[in-house]
User: Fold these one by one.
Assistant:
Number 1:
Amino acid sequence: MKSKTSQVTIVGAGPAGLSAAIQLAEFNIKSTIVDENPEIGGAIFKQPDKGLDKSLFRNEKTYIRAKKLFDEFFTYQSYVNLQLGSEVLGDFSLSNELAFLHNDKVKTLPNNPVIICTGCYERAQPFPGWTLPGIMSVGGIQLQTKCGNVKPGHKIALVGTGPLLLVAAKQLHQAGIKVVGVVEAGLKKDLIKNMFTLFYNTKLLKEGFSYINYMKNNKIPIFYGHGVVSARGNNELEELVIAPYTKEWKPIQEKSFSIQVDSAGIGYGYVPRIQLTQMLKCEHEFNANIGGFYPKVDHWQRTTIEGVYVAGDNGGIYGSEVALHQGRIAALAYLIDNKKITVEKASRLIKKNRKKMNNLKKFQSSFDNFSGLKSGLLTLPDSDTIVCRCEHVKMESIDVAINSGVKNMTGLKIRTRVGMGDCQGKMCGSFCAEYLSYKLGDTREKIGAMKPRFPMSPIPFSSITNKELEYEK
Ligand SMILES: Cc1cc2nc3c(=O)[nH]c(=O)nc-3n(C[C@H](O)[C@H](O)[C@H](O)COP(=O)(O)OP(=O)(O)OC[C@H]3O[C@@H](n4cnc5c(N)ncnc54)[C@H](O)[C@@H]3O)c2cc1C
């Protein structure tokens, strides 16, 4: 299919983006999907790089779900202009275009109508020693085995909160790595207390138990109500200090102990990837339970900007199943807005999905009572801990800035340079905003968020010098 005929732009080829494209194709609507990865699938269904062994990916239960989605997607291939290895860099609002980088060339495609399905990234948690080689985000460590077939280390601990710790522990163990323990900040009794509401989704509940059983059967200990304190090592990680956490997740230092590891996956939450909806001037709201700021949407996933729809984790972290349903809903919204289907017909089509989606959301919110982040995490860094890794800003400078009157994220950025580096605050932004809000007692709305700038990621000079922009229409 020629890209010229595409009617809708979709950013992101994860569950949300693929299901949006499928729904559009069912109504003969052609779309262009751009995704920075070399393969479709997004974070959960991330595939091994081309030419690498896919056996670990295949062994997973998730592969069955991935295959079903991919097979359905490829039956509609002729309706989709798939632009992989293409990273969207931002919005050219004057010409109504999105710019993206493909093969070192900056290209553009229409920015409206657009379904934004950019997913989420992991929230970084600074603590003393967290910049030592060997310490990674839990998703990052998982992806090394999942798609790169690289063993991230020999003795690993997975520390943080939420189901991804167990998923990653199993995958790493299956890949032949010694997993010395899973350290979960949530309390076991809070998990049991919420068991009743977790029955909203028996499939996910069973899956959760199967992971717990896997740990038991393979003698991988789970430390509930514990978390990280610090990391030590000579040039690389050698030991991780762990302690029981209080109700507010503050480490009880006198009960701390250390475990000998050469790698650790740290995972304290996710953040919706909202840079593109921020650039497109969509209104955003805040809810800590679903990752922070997310674009405000109506019942049909329409943002506050006409022709801009969102689906999936970038609209609030609810997981891959909800992302699939939301992708369909956003596509139906486009069809309604363009008179290809009536609201009544679309409502009938999506009725079952909405019911399933609402149950999944209830399941998710009951999990928040166990896994929702607590303020003790903000006390982990000491004055010497680097918070912004790009600009090497230490905790001490952040405290000095607050004491000298900084009141919001813009002020903090100007005063300390946090978020001014290559990642534009993807790493430190959430922690800094939470810390400001905690220290000043102000709402996160008042504190604000990091604002993205063009290009959202660094690009090579060669992509913009002596070359005309190329157009994908
Ligand atoms: C690192 C990580 C690992 C995870 N592992 C698991 C797991 O093992 N099991 C599980 O149940 N859940 C996992 N999750 C959660 C799960 O992946 C998500 O809930 C689910 O994938 C949401 O689907 P989505 O379509 O909204 O987003 P995603 O699947 O994240 O898809 C978004 C896609 O958009 C692309 N994208 C984003 N911004 C741009 C841009 N500017 N330009 C081009 N492309 C862009 C991303 O690369 C990605 O491919 C993981 C999440 C993360 C972040």
Number 2:
Amino acid sequence: MRLENKIAIVTGAASGLGKAMAELFVAEGAKVVYSDIYDAPVDLTIDAEKAIYVKCDVAKREEVATLIQKAIEKFGALDIMINNAGVGTTGSILDVKDDVWEKTIGVNLSGTFYGSQLAAQVMKEKGIKGSIVNLSSILGTVGLPGTVAYCASKGGVVQLTHAAALDLASYGIRVNAIAPGFILTNMTKGMLNNDSFNKLVTGNTPLGYVGEANDIAYAALYLASDEAKYVTGTILHVDGGWTAR
Ligand SMILES: NC(=O)c1ccc[n+]([C@@H]2O[C@H](COP(=O)([O-])OP(=O)(O)OC[C@H]3O[C@@H](n4cnc5c(N)ncnc54)[C@H](O)[C@@H]3O)[C@@H](O)[C@H]2O)c1
């Protein structure tokens, strides 16, 4: 198994990409802390031998600190931190409201910052050559009209990943990001169920179709595992070719 003896936290694990990653990690031998903003998510079936659920709002530093502390208390270490929790928001530069901007940056960028910093501090202190994986997006590299706060937050995740990888390389801690294209999840189903938007997406995706959650989970599995021991500071685009154009 590819994650034998590894301990992982996955934020935003109650649905979509986070849930797929957490389930794949358990199947590959990891002990996993599923985390999300809900008290008790309805859809999760967790094997208590291999996983626990911890509520955490990633936009709050103290909650992320408690999440990491609970992972250490339960499993004794932290090898893998997946900063996946995120919100999708709309609004153009002409009309996006401050509250939407602040929420988007707070969850997507500050949440990734808290998770990366607090995980890295624990890994350094314990001498763990850990792996931090952040969720950016194709919209961290290219724009999409009407999504200015989301694009800014995901562009921030790209540069946070580059800079943190350099800060942490001497400790053997790796930091990478995944930049998914359009994947069918709760975040995107409203947009993708709209015929004209769906056509826009498939028309701009060289492979010609929308991705599935496991396409991202397998990328996370690689970056989290020792197979990627020489990979740090990388933004892995899993986007059907969207950003190759
Ligand atoms: N689905 C896509 O097409 C796509 C593309 C590019 C990037 N992404 C990114 O992938 C990540 C996962 O998205 P998804 O598509 O699975 O969406 P999703 O909505 O299915 O899952 C996101 C999860 O994050 C949780 N969450 C939201 N705010 C939170 C907070 N403050 N604290 C803790 N948890 C919180 C939600 O409750 C939800 O369970 C996000 O960062 C998203 O921006 C998704």
